[in-house]
Write the structure tokens for this entry.
Amino acid sequence: LGQRRPKGEGTGVRAARRVDLGRIVALDAAVTGAAKRSYWRTSLQHHLRTRESDRLFLVAETAGQVDGFIAGEIRAFEFGSAPCGWVVALAVDPRQRERGLGSRLFTDLCRRFRAAGIRTVRTMVSRTQRTQLSFFRSHGLTTGPYLELEKQLD
Ligand SMILES: CC(C)(COP(=O)(O)OP(=O)(O)OC[C@H]1O[C@@H](n2cnc3c(N)ncnc32)[C@H](O)[C@@H]1OP(=O)(O)O)[C@@H](O)C(=O)NCCC(=O)NCCS
């Protein structure tokens, strides 16, 4: 991944393009430890092919290099809920963190959700991931009305 950039260099947020796939895979791999190329190719292709307004895929770019991405979806009436915008993935290059890139991505996604008539944004985070919890709390998210339930299948 890239060299840490000096603070203040201009970063833009734009819709993801096909050429961004390699960086998206690398950024996700840096966060999760697994390179899921076919998963991200399918996800990005679906977004690019359909251009559906209920699927959003944005990247943060500085001086021609993609340093972060966010993927969001509008899901209607899932679990009996009113339409809501979900953050399904968010990652910033570890060398470029704490410079506001994650916030730029999240704020832009929320602006697009709002323009689509959505009034609630939701995500799911691990209870042990304090950075994620702190990040989303800093953007005003609080505990939601649902509780995840699960069971191991034999
Ligand atoms: C979570 C993540 C996207 C934040 O990106 P970022 O560009 O560093 O975030 P920002 O610089 O916009 O930080 C915004 C706020 O988040 C909080 N925050 C960010 N990093 C933090 C850290 N390491 N510890 C505590 N709070 C933190 C702070 O409140 C910060 O506000 P401040 O700068 O006024 O203190 C980034 O750490 C990341 O990619 N983590 C790994 C992947 C991940 O956890 N994804 C989210 C769920 S899919």
User: Anything to note?
Assistant: The longest strand covers residues 65-75. The pocket of coenzyme A is lined by residues 31, 89-92, 97-103, 125, 129, 131-132, 134-135, 138 (CB under 6 Å).
